[in-house]
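Sharing a chain and its predicted structure for anyone who wants a worked example. Both blocks are below, sequence first, tokens second.
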Amino acid sequence: MNVKFSKPNIYEEDLKLVKKTIKSGWLTHGKNTSLFEQKFKAYTNSKYSITVSSCTAALHLSCLALDLKKGDEVIVPAMSHTATSHSVEYTGAKTVFVDIDFKTGNIDTDKILKKITKNTKAIIIVHMAGLSCEIDLILKICKKYKIKLIEDCAHSVGTKFQSTHVGNFGISGCFSFYPTKQITTGEGGMLITNNKSFYNKIKKLKAFGIDKDINQRKKQGTYDVKSLGFNYRLTDFQSALGLKQILNYKNNLKQRHLIAKKYIKSLKNVDEVKCMPYSNNCSFFVFQIFCKNRDKLLKKFKEKKIGVSIHYATPLPSMTYYKNRYNLSMVNFKKAKVYANTNISLPVYPSLQLKEQDKVIRVIKEFYGYY
């Protein structure tokens, strides 16, 4: 019995809508995109929601809309996907890394203050594996130093902080619909915001800088470009794929919580393994464990045909580009290094069968001699 690391939560009705959209010939600027944005906005209870070609695009657009430039500094956690820091680098601004809190994998709030300078313009936080950052404390820092907050919510569809969906606290929340994510459109993403002028700026930036949508043009093909923009649009058939998934997402999230609870209960007596903390407000994009002899356990999973992953294996400051560019040493990012060397992401998707999860648990217990 093979166990996959992830499986898209896609059903036949989703594929029918995709097929219908493709056959219609209306492949972009369509009604599915508008509906997807509306339903995502409703789910997150945000004022504005806009589809983009990836979470990376959402992060980049957020940085551009804040007018970040050379000489500006943006604080970023040392543990994340490279998209988080790359979005800063694209603008010419400087990425300033902060170590993490090992218990959550999120940015260490206590260490943010030490990195703030007169050039600090923004902070990008990441809700690792769907666990919310300490947003209340971060917002206090942002208010005191007049710093903008961008939320990287790539892991966080369904994550809340004090009853509010994440992504609503910063100037923007940036979501990912990559194939391993809770909702997928192949590639794709969503940006939410509660700031109207920011939303309007993003809309133009994501579509070449064009000043009028198709439905706003009095005559076909007539528009102006007043600023430099990009082609970061999502197709309408991708939106069709995502639409049904967000409508059914409550059931998806419920199953993830049940699977997470079973992992925690089953592994609580395995001394060599620590599970990520349980939270009713976590999206459980993945279920992370932190273990001794991690790489040997990874080999065992491979032998047993169990799909797992690592989020993430390499802290951003130790990657060649950033290490060389900023002359960084991992001495300042000790927790991120330990996190990178010990974490494994286990399967946690809704269609994971009980017998499949039991196999994952059994392999872990056998590896450490608990069977």
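Comments welcome. The chain has a mean pLDDT of 95.
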